[in-house]
Amino acid sequence: KAGVTQTPRYLIKTRGQQVTLSCSPISGHRSVSWYQQTPGQGLQFLFEYFSETQRNKGNFPGRFSGRQFSNSRSEMNVSTLELGDSALYLCASRSTGELFFGEGSRLTVL
Amino acid sequence: SQQGEEDPQALSIQEGENATMNCSYKTSINNLQWYRQNSGRGLVHLILIRSNEREKHSGRLRVTLDTSKKSSSLLITASRAADTASYFCATNGRGSTLGRLYFGRGTQLTVWP
């Protein structure tokens, strides 16, 4: 069974631009969560989706948004990028309690 | 904050020794999970222990949970160099959705050959 796939793995953007990150969950998993990891703040929850509905949202500004498609694939978008948005963005899917993470998308904002 | 706090922040041991990491948290939980992360990579799920469980084993891993003290420990027996990684505890708060975890800052484990 293929794991969680995140694309792109690495990207560099400049301040003010926007970015879209993609996540394909494990086949059969309908729940997808997104996390941001930075050296300063550690791992922080962004959103959780289940069957195309946002079920939970972390404490991030409105520049951070996401969605889930009918095939359970998910995307997150960050608009008007700031230097502080540089981070490893991790997607996880689950069927029961355990979360299975992808390798992440490393975003650098210059 | 519900975030767990791991202790110690860093641990350095020789191959063959046991490694013990502790985690404390602040609120009632549905479950507590441990994850491993190799540098710059994704997180790998190690073990989940539910709030009504006290101890769980998986291979060389042993996890305990004391809900009265709001603490957990992860024991890795007979450590190997390949166990070198960061280890995180994560709690799923009671009343929260299952996909929302609160992570601690992690313990950096180094196992020397």
SSE topology:
The complex is a heterodimer of chains A (110) and B (113).
Chain A: E1 5-7, E2 10-13, E3 19-24, E4 31-38, E5 42-50, E6 53-57, E7 64-68, E8 74-78, E9 87-94, E10 100-101, E11 105-109
Parallel strand pairs in A: 2-11
Antiparallel strand pairs in A: 1-3, 3-8, 4-5, 4-9, 5-6, 7-8, 9-10, 9-11
Chain B: E1 5-7, E2 10-14, E3 19-24, E4 29-37, E5 43-50, E6 55-58, E7 61-66, E8 71-76, E9 85-93, E10 102-103, E11 107-112
Parallel strand pairs in B: 2-11
Antiparallel strand pairs in B: 1-3, 3-8, 4-5, 4-9, 6-7, 7-8, 9-10, 9-11
Write up what this structure looks like.
The complex is a heterodimer of chains A (110) and B (113). With 110 residues, chain A is mainly beta. Chain A contains no helices and eleven strands. In chain A, strands 2, 4, 5, 6, 9, 10 and 11 form a seven-stranded mixed β-sheet that branches. A four-stranded antiparallel β-sheet of chain A has the order 1-3-8-7, with no helix packed on it. In chain A, strand 7 (64-68) and strand 8 form a beta hairpin. Chain B is mainly beta and 113 residues long. In chain B, 0% of the residues lie in helices and 57% in strands. Chain B is built from no helices and eleven strands. Chain B has strands spanning 5-7, 10-14, 19-24, 29-37, 43-50, 55-58, 61-66, 71-76, 85-93, 102-103, 107-112. In chain B, strands 2, 4, 5, 9, 10 and 11 form a six-stranded mixed β-sheet that branches. In chain B, a hairpin with a 4-residue loop joins strand 7 (61-66) and strand 8 (71-76). Chain B is globular and about 45 Å long. Chains A and B meet through strand 4, strand 5, strand 9 and strand 10 of A and strand 4, strand 5, strand 9 and strand 10 of B.
